[in-house]
Design goal:
With 133 residues, the protein is mainly α. The chain has helices spanning 15-27, 31-38, 42-49, 58-68, 72-83, 98-110, 116-132; strands spanning 7-8, 11-12. A hairpin with a 2-residue loop joins strand 1 and strand 2. Helix 2 (31-38) packs across helix 3 (42-49) and helix 4 (58-68) packs across helix 5 (72-83). The two termini are 20 Å apart.
């Protein structure tokens, strides 16, 4: 999984956007070529890479995997990365208990203040816990 967030100009790229750009560059595919293949605009792909669009749907993800020849684990890794790259995350705490609600709110307030290393440590703990559930 991509561990760093790339900065392109003044816009932060999502981990999914970074991976898509890496795949395009590795395969020598321009954004215009990829857009034509997927039947979307270059502007849409640019917004997707830069986190200005939400995560693409299942069909679009399958088309992207097919374009780059991703199968099995590689395709699943890309889909997981997409699912973890929502540029604007909302946590509905209305159905959670008091402590979970407090934890979600504290996390939302704390995360913008932590270093990238601290965020990475938190993400690793959360991934480990997620895998256990």
């Amino acid at each position: 999984m991509v561990s760093e967030i790339a900065r392109c100009g003044a816009v932060m790229m999502t981990p999914f956007g970074i991976k898509i750009r890496e795949l395009r560059q590795t395969h020598g595919i321009t954004m215009a070529d990829m857009a034509a293949h997927l039947n979307v605009s270059s502007a849409y792909l640019s917004q997707l890479e830069h986190g200005k669009r939400g995560v693409p749907g299942v069909i679009m993800l399958d088309q992207i995997c097919a374009l780059f020849g991703l199968i099995w684990e590689d395709a699943e890794d890309l889909k997981t990365l997409a699912a973890l790259s929502h540029p604007r995350v909302v946590i509905d705490t209305s159905h959670l208990g008091k402590e979970a609600m407090i934890a979600a709110n504290l996390f939302a307030q704390l995360l913008p203040r932590v270093s990238e290393e601290e965020a990475q440590a938190m993400a690793e703990w959360l991934k480990t816990r997620y895998d256990q559930l």
